[in-house]
Amino acid sequence: MGAVFEYCDTIRYSRVDGELKLSIPALIDYFQDAAIEQSESLGVGTKVLKARSLAWFLISWDVRIRRLPELEERIIVGTYPYQFRGMLGNRAVYMKTPEGEVLAEADAKWALMDMANMRMTKIPEDILARYELGDGPLFEAKGRKIAVPEGGTAHDPVPVQEYMLDNNGHVNNGQFVHLAMSYAPRDAEITELRVEYKKQARPGDTITPQVCVDEARTVISLNTDEPACVVELS
Questions:
Q1: Using CA atoms, how far apart are residues 193 and 204, in angstroms rounded to an integer?
Q2: Residue 199, SS3 per DSSP
Q3: Are 167 and 50 in contact (CB under 8 A)?
Q4: Residue ranges in the chain modelled with pLDDT below 70
Q5: Could you say which DSSP state residue 32 is in?
Q6: By the 8 A CB rule, do 220 and 231 touch?
Q7: Which domains does the chain have, with CATH numbers?
């Protein structure tokens, strides 16, 4: 199999917002699924890694949105890794129409975790050998770190619920985005989404959203005892 992995789908009702367009959290879910599906297809998926006490943890997203597809629209989602270095991997992801119109593009940074010791670990050579590197990033991504403005508005704490968890027992990457989007300005036309994952959130934790809005961007910090995830919308 080559560097690029693609799959086709139709935008279903459960994935659209009130305007019958793909919701931004659903877009992130598509992108996350594409990365996982490629690893599964190469024989180094979630179960294989789990048997070796390994797991990929997402560090950040930088997503550029050109147009959100509508209900029943056909799409192609694609991805490829373009760099591995030590414990880290970089991946490009995109969504387009069958006719070739690019709808959204993303750059993602991942880290391989040793789950027994809960620390990042060097990617084993036999895992690296399963992947072919693609041409490079789709655009010049911004840095991983997101500056959080001082002040802002604190919202009611949200207890971590079981439905938010993934197979590693912490809040799923996409669930953080789902939560953050509920505090986004209404009717905002979002063309860029950045996400920085800083800390795991687990059952028993409470997430307190802190929302800062200025003319250029909205920053939503989802905090436990310290920021767990920061989302920037612009």
A1: 28
A2: coil
A3: yes
A4: 1
A5: H
A6: yes
A7: 5-128 (3.10.129.10), 153-233 (3.10.129.10)
